[in-house]
């Protein structure tokens, strides 16, 4: 994108213009409005759509506002390591408690 | 090895204010440390979110989420927090470009929007308590208040942090060589925002 310039090779910094940040902010606001519209309309596949929109917003904030897209990959690695563990933990616990059959434990003695 | 590195290793020279000092990774240690902290915070909020999700629908008596959630109000507070993130990145841009008034204005917007978000949360909690949902009333009450309460506590810390930066900016002490301080504060603020992005969908919009 032409509004983003990579002018600091030392740490891979980039400086986007305020106009670019406004555009990202506008997209985030529109996506939030779409999420709420989905909540009220309740179309088929509402929940996966909500999760996808949420993930897009998440990635836009960390990529552009937190500058991960332009910064060193080491920062991305450090963040993604914690995030991956967290996502795995939440998913594992939800699956264990909501989707795994409960097997009665036999009473011994 | 360059003279600059030798000078730093021997303890000579002034400590650099920006993020261009020499480290093993070539990256600023404060920034690496803060990203590590943010990674650990993902796990912190992950545990709270897991607890909410595991006990979702397990409350034996109401009020239930569908009875008391006010989606238009929460949408408004979500919008305010998102726009505060935009203000934060514009404030950082102002500091980096030595535009003191711009930086002070946007830092002020972050503080005000953060305060508005906390006001919404106070109103919501107050309303829920009047509806009979307290921390000890049900599993929903316990998990909801702990999760959103810890998020609110993070926002509060962020607002105080941004207010201190605003004061520095108004005093003319937030010069471009202090941009890293603002960038790290911004990372914290944006993280608080992305946590709310997840909470808004998983707690409020997905019943």
Summarize the structure.
The complex is a heterodimer of chains A (109) and B (207). Chain A has 109 residues and is mainly α.
How would the blueprint of this fold be written?
The complex is a heterodimer of chains A (109) and B (207).
Chain A lengths: L3 E5 L4 E4 L1 H24 L4 H20 L7 H26 L11
Antiparallel strand pairs in A: 1-2
Helix pairs in contact in A: 1-2
Chain B lengths: L2 H7 L19 H26 L10 H4 L2 H26 L3 H31 L8 H32 L8 H27 L2
Structure report:
The complex is a heterodimer of chains A (109) and B (207). By secondary structure, chain A is mostly helical. Chain A folds into two domains: 1-71, no CATH class; 72-102. Chain A contains three helices and two strands. Chain A has a two-stranded antiparallel ribbon. Chain B is elongated, with a radius of gyration of 21 Å. Chain B has one domain: Up-down Bundle (Four Helix Bundle (Hemerythrin (Met), subunit A)), CATH 1.20.120.80. Chain B has helices at residues 3-9, 29-54, 65-68, 71-96, 100-130, 139-170, 179-205. Chain B starts with a helix and ends with a helix.
Based on CA atoms alone, the radius of gyration of chain A comes out at 20 Å
CA radius of gyration of chain B: 21 Å
Which term fits the overall shape of chain A? flat
N-to-C order of helices and strands of chain B = HHHHHHH
Low-confidence stretches of chain A: 1-12
Biggest sheet: strand arrangement of chain A = 1-2
CATH fold-type name of chain B: Four Helix Bundle (Hemerythrin (Met), subunit A)
> What does the main sheet of chain A amount to?
2 strands, antiparallel
Strand content of chain A: 5-15%
Q: How many domains, in number, for the residues of chain B?
A: 1
Note the total helix count of chain A. 3
Q: Between the first and last Cα atoms of chain A, what is the distance in angstroms?
A: 71 Å
* Oligomeric assembly: heterodimer
Q: How many runs of DSSP E, i.e. beta strands of chain A?
A: 2
In terms of per-residue confidence, which ranges of chain B show pLDDT below 50 for 5 or more consecutive residues? 1-19
Strand content of chain B: under 5%
Calculate the mean pLDDT score of chain B and round it: 89
